[in-house]
């Protein structure tokens, strides 16, 4: 089975855009808890840095994440189709 590269890329971009929205909403709703969680995930102390989430940063960050995810999804689909042995 071959993957449709464009459809897979779009699905990846959409999934990451939705994850970005949920994550951003959690940062706005629970900044300290999300800071603690990020610190644990990255083995750092984010409490001293704090969050800086502006509307333009939210929009630009979401666009960049979606584009990067779409590109990576497209590459994964191409590699999968190239190396897949099933017809």
How does the SSE layout of this entry go?
Layout (H helix, E strand, L loop, with lengths): L4 H25 L1 H12 L12 H29 L4
Helix pairs in contact: 1-2, 1-3
Structure characterization notes:
The model has no long low-confidence stretch (mean pLDDT 92). The chain has helices at residues 5-29, 31-42, 55-83. With 87 residues, it is mostly helical. Helix 1 crosses helix 2 (31-42) and helix 1 runs antiparallel to helix 3 (55-83). Helices cover 76% and strands 0% of the residues. The N and C termini lie close together (6 Å).
Please name the defining characteristics of this protein.
mainly alpha, 76% helix
Summarize the structure.
By secondary structure, the protein is mostly helical. The protein has three helices and no strands.
* Rg from alpha-carbon coordinates: 17 Å
> How would you sum up the global shape?
elongated
How many helices? The count is 3
Q: What sequence of helices (H) and strands (E) makes up the elements?
A: HHH
Helix content: over 70%
> Distance N terminus to C terminus?
6 Å
Question: Strand count, sense and closure of the main sheet?
Answer: none
What structural class is derived from the secondary structure elements? Answer: mainly alpha
Average pLDDT reading: 92
Number of strands: 0
Query: Uncertain spans, ≥5 residues at pLDDT below 50?
Result: none
Strand content: under 5%
């Amino acid at each position: 089975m071959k993957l449709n590269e464009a459809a897979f890329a779009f699905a990846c971009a959409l999934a990451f855009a939705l994850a970005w929205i949920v994550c951003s909403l959690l940062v706005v709703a629970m900044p300290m808890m999300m800071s603690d969680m990020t610190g644990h995930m990255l083995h750092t102390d984010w409490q001293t840095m704090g969050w800086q989430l502006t509307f333009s940063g939210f929009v630009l960050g979401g666009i960049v994440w979606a584009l990067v995810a779409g590109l990576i999804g497209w590459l994964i689909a191409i590699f999968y189709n190239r190396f897949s042995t099933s017809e």
